[in-house]
Amino acid sequence: MKDFILKHIAAIILPFICIYGFYVILHGHISPGGSFAGGIIVGLSFIAFITIYGSRKGHAQMPDKVLVFMESYGTLWYGIMGMIGIFKGVPFLANKLAGVNLGAPWALSSGGLISLIGIGVGIRVTSTIITLFFTMMEDES
Amino acid sequence: MNLKIKKLFALAVILMSVYMIIMVVAELPPYGEPNNPVHNNVSERYINDALHDTGVPNMVTAIVFDYRAYDTMFEAIVLFAATLAVVITLKRWKKAGDNK
Question: Where in chain A are the domains?
Fold first, then answer.
């Protein structure tokens, strides 16, 4: 128990940082912020967890399988959302043209495809930054 | 002697290019004027119609995910490829007979 204070303070603070990151991702279209910034915040909360609690516990929280899944399907999600336009007979990635319900401005559900795409991009940015960190700080054992 | 001439020539070239750059900067229109040529009908269209076209109050998100959606999509794919390259080059793969 060398870093008693650090570990306990981190256990209190890190969940709030993670929740704040999800808030920034979900509200990316109605507030300043966005999915790239929110994904970075979520990723940084995990990076702080890994640096404080050690790489082994970090791997237990975020296995490589989950990271690969998030990375590849987050990228593919963008393309799937774009295909909605093709099925409706309008250009790729069309939003208003495709007849998606845009909703009332300032509501969380507004924006049609924009908020859905934003969630996917936030997830994949999170996995990107965690993957880079894991790859670069692999220890000897 | 030869080196001195070379250095003098380099100095002359640098001074000429600095003079050119300063003249170009002096010709620029003042910053933030409403009549500048950058403020053409493209930005006007975005400012006036972004809320109506996309239903999103955040104009940056409206441009990034709707007007410039292709750009963002391939930006995401570039990020994916960069991560793939980093993992391939830097990750230490365990060999099959390695019992470490």
Answer: 4-138
